[in-house]
Fold:
Amino acid sequence: RGEVSAGQIPSLVKSFPLCMANLYDHLHTDNHLRHGGRMQFGLFLKGIGLPMDEALKFFRAEFAPKMASDKFEREHAYSVRYNYGKEGKRQDWTPYSCIKIISQTPGVGDYHGCPYKTMDAPSLDAALRRLRIDPKKITEAVGKAKGGHFQLACASAWAGAHACSCDTGINHPNQYYDESRKVLD
Ligand code: SF4
Structure:
């Protein structure tokens, strides 16, 4: 897979699953994301091919309206480098799977986790509408989420965003993205 630059990210959001589109949205609007969100989203971006230097550039720019770059260096650059195995345990961390994301319990003010589990039906409906997903598939996704079938709900949303079905099912946000790029690239 090729590399992705910081500047390409906004044009790739249409291939992000709701859990990541939602984190991007909050980061871009609030110029802030709490730790759990930065980990979940940062590792996903690493998985789509964003190199560490581009990740630093991306997060620095998104935080910039509310945070001077020296403060970013002190408070957040470490965790970006950590995700890439350049700090702390120096482990090459892998992006989270759906099972891992679904098992998280985000607190108030957190936006990580799986929205099919964490959002109530009206919020989920509104969030999927913002992604311009086929309304019939939104209804299907909201119904499946209500029944506790979060990954099936995500597959319905994928189908509604790409006008075809995802035969492999959804088990990883990076797989959602890869399948999307095959159709939209
Ligand atoms: Fe993200 Fe997986 Fe939930 Fe879809 S099912 S929103 S890819 S965690």
Observations:
- Residues 6-83 form one domain.
- The pocket of iron/sulfur cluster is lined by residues 17-19, 98, 101-102, 114-116, 150-151, 154, 170, 173, 176 (CB under 6 Å).
